[in-house]
Specification:
With about 170 residues, the chain is an all-alpha fold. It is about 55% helix and about 0% strand.
């Protein structure tokens, strides 16, 4: 039921689950081409990457919670992984460290809120598929509202660019 964001992408009821599902569908084709990537780590990172948005955003009204404003979903989710790993006595396992790295680096760049840049292949792919889905979903929604043979309005998540919608034949 939760949105994935307050404004730019998947900011509607069910947006978070739709965004996560779409990203999960992108993993296997990449693994076929790049088999050195760890499928289990990618699935786990994808499922968990935005899960703390449930506590970061108050719901479909699109307001950030106090915890969301002060801490943010990257840190909130990493803390949750720490808590569960400790409860299960897995806190020293490398997979936990790699999963936490994926979560804190999934925005990819410091200027997009990442405390770290991706430093493992799985984190890099998580950032890319997150970016692909957020941008292409908004592009598709915008093109659906655009007349054939004309340009879209400026699209915020695409650097305020305008895209041409070709005439259908």
């Amino acid at each position: 039921m939760h949105p994935a964001a307050t404004k730019f992408h998947h900011a509607y009821v069910g947006g978070l689950s739709y965004h996560t599902l779409t990203m999960l569908k992108l993993i296997d084709p990449f693994i076929e081409i790049y088999p050195y990537l760890n499928r289990d780590l990618l699935y786990a990172g994808t499922i968990l990457h935005d899960m703390s948005k449930i506590d970061e955003i108050s719901g479909v009204d699109g307001e950030y919670t106090k915890e969301g404003l002060l801490i943010g979903h990257l840190v909130m989710q990493t803390s949750m992984i720490d808590l569960v790993a400790h409860e299960l006595h897995y806190e020293k396992e490398e997979e936990v460290l790699l999963l936490k790295h994926m979560i804190i680096s999934h925005h990819g760049q410091y200027n997009f809120g990442s405390p770290k840049k991706p430093q493992i292949g799985e984190a890099l792919l998580l950032w890319f598929i997150d970016t692909i889905d957020s941008k292409f979903t908004v592009l598709g929604e915008t093109l659906a509202e655009t007349q054939d043979g004309s340009f879209t309005n400026m699209i915020s998540v695409l650097d305020k660019m305008r895209f041409y919608k070709a005439n259908k034949k």
